[in-house]
Amino acid sequence: MAPPLQPLRRITGTSGPSRRSLLAGVAALGALGAAGCSRVPTASTTDGGDLLDRLRAAGVVRLGIAGEIPFGYIDKNGELTGEAPELAKVIFKRLGVDRVQPVPTEFGSLIPGLNSQQFDVVAAGMYVNAERCEQVIFSDPDYQMLDSFIVRKGNPLGLRNYQDVVEKKAKFATGTGYAEIAYAVEAGYQESDILIVPDQVAGLNAVEAGRVDVFAGTALTTREVVKKSSKAEVTEAFKPIVGGEPHVDGGAFAFRPTETKLRDAFNVELAKLKKSGELLRILKPFGFTEDEMTDLTAKELCGG
Questions:
Q1: Are the C-beta atoms of 184 and 175 separated by less than 8 Å?
Q2: Cα-flanking dihedrals φ and ψ of residue 202, to 5°?
Q3: Nearest to 256 by CA among 113, 125, 140, 127
Q4: DSSP string over 135-199
Q5: Does pTM surpass 0.85?
Q6: How many CB atoms lie within 10 A of CB 243?
Q7: For residues 183 and 161, is the Cβ–Cβ distance under 8 A?
Q8: Which ranges carry the Solute-binding protein family 3/N-terminal domain (predicted)?
Q9: What DSSP designation does 242 have?
């Protein structure tokens, strides 16, 4: 994101809080995962890196995750799942790496953890933006994402975008570290007036209780959280305005800058999954629809 808080997927910068809350127990699982995994030497000795060869030899790839539903998390049975880990399982299998091993951490620690070799790949649905592209290299996005609002039933204020929120002087909320903070500020909303809540569940509760008029989040997370609500609904997805232009975010896998061979091989398999339609089949159980499929490239999202 170009404003003070850059869209990350959801987040700001690389050291800020997670866009979504960590699941209970993730920190402990992370410690166990880090201690229990065999470290694969990843220093590049050839142009483009040799990590893929090393992963094939070891038979396992370590995935950095941030405990965020539906992107990458440990489920109630202690199993790794989420859209990014499930996709990683398929692609790395095709690349000759049979197992994936989770290394949970906070979202803001993903890029530092990757570059300090705590894990091999970031598999957390991370938004691609120019700031991050200076620190890591990304695969092409496996999904795109628009925003939407949680409002009271009937949308009494007629809120459809951030400009409406400003014009109607609506009480506005979004989540800790969310990209939507920057989008609202760019539209003219005072940052000091924004109610910051932990996640979309807390946002729904705030709308239902009448503490705010609107909660902003991704189209996917908002539509999922309102499914059982009798008091709230989700608005139609829309593109926020960034730098005066409609903006679409895209989430992808991140790799160390030296490992272009691994990133390129990953992209080849990802493109095959997109073409066959298998990508949507893998992501659909996590709430993704045809609307979230994309042909965006990392180059476009990196700004060049």
A1: no
A2: -65, -35
A3: 113
A4: T-EEPPPSEEE-EEEEEETT-TT---SHHHHHHTT--EEEETT-THHHHHHHHT--GGGPEEESS
A5: no
A6: 9
A7: no
A8: 60-290
A9: E
